[in-house]
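Human: My hope is that you can spare some time for a protein that puzzles me. I am handing you a single protein, as its sequence and its fold in token form. Could you go through the record with me and say what the backbone is doing? Take your time, and here it is.
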Amino acid sequence: MNLRKKSTHLFDLIQSLTKGEKRYFKLYTNAFEGKSQTYIKLFEAIEKQKQYNEAALKKKLAKESFIKHFAVAKNQLFNNILKTLRLYHNKDTAAERTARHHDNYLILIKKNLRHIASSELDKAIKIADEAQLLRENIMLLQKRNNILMQTQFNGLSSEEVKSKLDEPLVLCEELVIFHKCLRISQEVDYLIYQKSLRSKKILERIEELSKSPHIQIENKPVTFRAKAFFHHTRGGCAFAIKDYTTYLEESTQIAKVYAQNKLGAASETTSLLINANNILHGAIRVKPLHEVQEQAKKYTHLIEDFHKQNINQIHYERRCFEASLHYKLDYYLFHSQFDKAYQIINEIILELKKIEPHISSPYWILYQYHIAYTYWGVQKNDLAYDYLLKLSNHPHIKHNTAIWSATQLLSLLVHYHNNNIEYLTHQISNTKQNLKRNKYFYAYEEAFLSMLKKLILNNKSNDKQTILNQYEQIFKELKTHKSELDAFEKIDILYWINQEQKKVRQATLKEIA
């Protein structure tokens, strides 16, 4: 929940405006305000503040006549900015055209020009029908039927009358189907956002939702928005249980749904971007790199196309970074190709510094962890530890429990490689308590800490080999559990065990020689 005070809403809105939006507001306001310049003066005074300070504003604008009605002036300025933003961002979408014809209809009805009003209503119904705007069309059809009632459905047969009366009901049924899909989709998203995909209880609930009759393929809905949420929900369930093949298939189906209804999809730009990112995310996990690169290009083109049209510029820098560069790092790390990840890590770090002011904490944490994980994978332990320390000190690290836990465990492996045995002796116990306290202590973490404790207590090569072999089997078995897969994605412990086994064998051969 946003805890910002209502008194800062105008300041927050002004500070969020782009240069183009500010220029448009001033041009629009100058055209209508004339010499008074009330809203321009108030706008510019707030625009210059780094933090909202109402007392300073009143002092600065003390000679202005509107200062006596400061709250009213602020409220009017707020509404005027929103009005100009609507005009600035008006892309003449189907929803906007429908609303425009409906507004015309209402005005003409008030003027008792019913014959002209009916024509405007018919235009609104046609646009809403083509774009499958269910809610809007139900209301419009009800109004059309009211008009037909007034003329006693003049000229229509009994069957035609029944058909006209049924049209809103048919759309209501489609709307119910849409909301049933949406209801399941939102719960799945909520469960994923809880960062609790390690919980068997939550995974069981997701599997239960995945069996809902509303999202079975034989019950696939008709309208394109319902279809999109239908596939989104099925994909979300697959993502939660790490079934990336199905996740990719369902995301691809959503893209096809949008492609088949371009008129409706024109108002779904955010959904289009998110889905393109989802396809890339799924491809990274199940497709060869050349196919992943093709999807990254498609995603990049979509981002740039929307950017040129001033559509969906939110997170533009981050999206470009992920589509042009970070996807490769994600691919290499997911497949434990650390040498290849290391080859691009300097470029990653440089680009990340450029966009750092534009990314939120969750993404900053994710990217920093990927850098630390890359350095760890190529045994650049000091560099890995620098990033891990920076992550551990971040105020929001515990908001992403999975990465916070992985940061704790990866730090232990770094200390193990640096032979900090005395530190590890008590830190393993501390880490265990921290994980338990934060309710993130599962079978993977328990086996991880147990293995590390045994390794530091047994220095002989034969003993280490036995321990590594034992835990290799334990982790292989754990990897068959859906609730443990996320931990393996954060730290590929089987990769590490294999690397350690090679070192032990080499050490044994040296001892024999």
Observations:
- Residues 158-193 form the longest helix (36 residues).
- The chain has a mean pLDDT of 91.
